[in-house]
Amino acid sequence: MTKRIFRRMDFALIAAAAGIIIMSLVIIGSATHINTPSDERYWFVQRQGLFAVIDVALAVFLMNFDYKMLQGYGNKLYVFNLVMLLAVMLVGHSALGAQRWISLGPINIQPSEFSKLIMIISLAGILEERVGKLHTVHDLLPVAGYVGLPFLLVLKQPDLGTSLVFLAIFFGMIFVCGIRLRLLFGIFAAGIACLPILWHFLKDYQKMRIMVFMDPNVDPLGSGYHIIQSKIAIGSGMLFGKGLFEGTQSQLNFLPENHTDFIFAVVGEELGFVGAAVLLFLYLVLLWRGIQIARDASDIFGRLLATGITSMLAFHVLVNVGMTTGIMPVTGIPLPFMSYGVSSLTTNILAIAVLLNIHLRKQKLLF
Amino acid sequence: MIENDEYEGRVRALGIMVVMVIFILLARVGYLQVMDGEYYANLADGNRIRIIPSMAPRGTFFDRNGVPLVMNRPGFTVSLLPLTAPVSEEVVWRLSQLLKVSVEDIHKKIDAHSGFDPIHIKQDVTPDIVSIIEEQKNLYPGVVIEVQPVRDYVLKQEAAHTFGYVSEISDAELEKRKDEGYKSGDIIGKFGLEKIYDKEIRGVNGGEQVEVDVTGKPVQVLGMKEPVPGADLYLTIDKNLQEAAEKAVDEQLAAINAHAAAAVVMNPQTGEVLAIVSRPAFDPNLFAHGISTKDWNAINTNPYHPMDNKAITGEYPPGSTFKIVTGTAALASGKVTPEEKIFDSGHHWIIPKGNADGEALGWLNFTEAMAHSDNVYFYEMGNRMGIDTLEHYARMFGLGKVTGIDLPYEAEGLVANREYKRKVYEDDWYLSETFDAAIGQGFNLVTPLQAAMVMGEIAANGKRYRPHLVNRIMSQDGVIIKEFEPELLSELDVPPYVIQLVQTGLHDVTKYGTAARTFQGFTVDIAGKTGTAENSQGRDHGWFVAYGPFNYPTIVVAVIVEQGGYGAQSAVPIGRRILEAAFGLNQPAPSGNSAPPAQKPQ
Predict the structure, then answer these.
(1) Which of A58, B78, B265, B358 has the greatest number of beta carbons closer than 10 A?
(2) What ipTM goes with this model?
(3) Could you tell me the residue ranges of all domains in chain B?
């Protein structure tokens, strides 16, 4: 069994994920100033590293189970997800203007991170029987409603970023589920037509973020500050970077949120274009393997799972790196495996575990 | 593998999208870092690097004996570093409490500021505020203490008009002098020697390049340029004489209830100025760090114009002191011989003008007329010479143009002449105007410095030296940058006996003439001349000019008391006390103002 598992491992995927995690630990260390004396300077790195180890152990353990059994838990997980998101609204506590956290002993968990993966599993469960049957709005409505409920709960937190991730997952999965392209484009057209209406539902700070995205200089010391400082950090890294622990934007705290949402800017500043390109290459490998695994999956459920996971990760990378480089509005979406945050890290490692599991159990041609 | 896989193409399409996403991001990052990298690198430096300028101390002014007169003391300025992020409200509030500056005022200063120099919040704070900020650095991120030398005029208002004052460069000055290296926020000499020698004494500012974090807390010093102190001025001023002159003027003004006066003391053999007094005065220390509105209003509303240096900008009719010029001219042009006697019947026979109180002095020769300041005699001199000859000699004495002293805003004065009358009044010249001119009234105007110069030329046997206040300019390391030698400007083109006769007449003024009573018992032989300048605005101005010792004059003095009445009563006592100080005589000053003058002067 172990020998077979070993032979069936997707090493490229593992190597890419491991590479990003190692890079993450180094950059988080730099961003949290482990080079300057302070009692707690190793706290972030230690915690992130510890969780990486635990998560990997958990992932290895989960290899023993066939991902197909997840299908049976789809609806139960869905209900659990709703309960968890409601719990955030009732007993959660807020940070940075949004209610996103639940305390479980020493750990603060962010249910919306886990809810993405749960969403993928549940959605794959109900989409599996609908392959090739999504032709009309009527066909799509139950699915849309199924996603819409948790979507609205997340939006209400408010966590616009995560709710957008839900949309990305949703569209990625119905796309490979064979939704009629006319219907898909119709939805996009309707969505664009509704944008002005949606604008009214945005909170003021969200509107400001959109405006600042159009022109960061409308509010250079307020909402535009993050984008401006992030672009300065990345740009000033130039080709080879200022060197690890030497990024002035990051080390002198001009760059806010430098170990979480804006960690890519630290990579750009300290490691330069070379470092940023290496990181993007690792993501390319990771996502490309995700696509391959979706293609080669032994069943539709597996393919849908892999598609959802890849869509989720790709959307995170696009929005996060796009935000730090000023081509996407500011939304609090972490960079997978890089940003500090144990909920996000755990979710992503488990997502990779699911991908590996699908890969492991693809068609048994060799036997 | 999935059987009958009709949607495998969709997965491939998704794959292409994913690859595109990565390449778009890669292109974007490459654009920022490779194409625009230089630009962002500059912005990053702009974020973290701040220059804290360190002002060069201005050169010290020493008196002729090396006594410091104008120095610098360390002043502490509390400033905010301009930051990338907005200054925290908490820090602003804390500063406001500490410095007693309102939060709004601090915000106003921050908003008005541009560039990366520190924003001055409060200048010249006390050392305890400095130590509070230094000790609690973490409570005051972004707050820096700049040590700036503050000009210290140790004599306060004494000699204020000579030294001048400094303050921050104005926009207009900056516009004009940008090319000379002046920068916004620089302290510049605005008046007096501070203005004239600004370039020599200002030095070269230095600064410190520091790296700061986002809160403005300095992290490390990247570079440092020491300021170069300005060169020192060694003045011709004699501190003791200056102080004595100030005291003499102040006490006399108080005694006779007058408010404005000026005095000049010089060495006629060199042009060195030993003391200049102008009243009322101002305290230049008030300007050193921005004068308060209250102080400025007090200066501005004073009807006697404290900011004017009356010794060089005040233009007054010379009155009878002009008889020195008229007398020299009459003798030199041969219109009168020393022996010729002219009869004063109380008024002149052509135009009925006479002495102030109408008394008749009878037959008088040249020296007697000078000693008693007889108007009728000098009317006749004017009558014989005509205005053109008088003008010629007045100009020979250097009147009607600036003396060239090294102070700003010197006035030219005026020599009575036909041209002026025609231009200003569009009228011909009348004989009565020649009469007025001959006794220093009418169209003649001189500054106290010019009056001293005229007297000085007689004292120095006709030689006219450029008046100057600086002997040498010397850098901090002892290198002499410039030395000022006596500069002979001109010599009176008259026979030596003429000057001797005028000297004799002026000597007699102090022996039995108009100034004799005040100079009773004065142990140094001197020459002098009183004067009373008619003033259409109020009481007459009192004049006194003198030099001594008579045989080898080293001191010439000119005193005017605005609206002081007769010169003998107002100006002569001041003159006496200045001369006492100059010659080191310590007799008590006679109460000249209470005793009647020896003679009614004119």
Answers:
(1) B265
(2) 0.94
(3) 55-235, 239-583
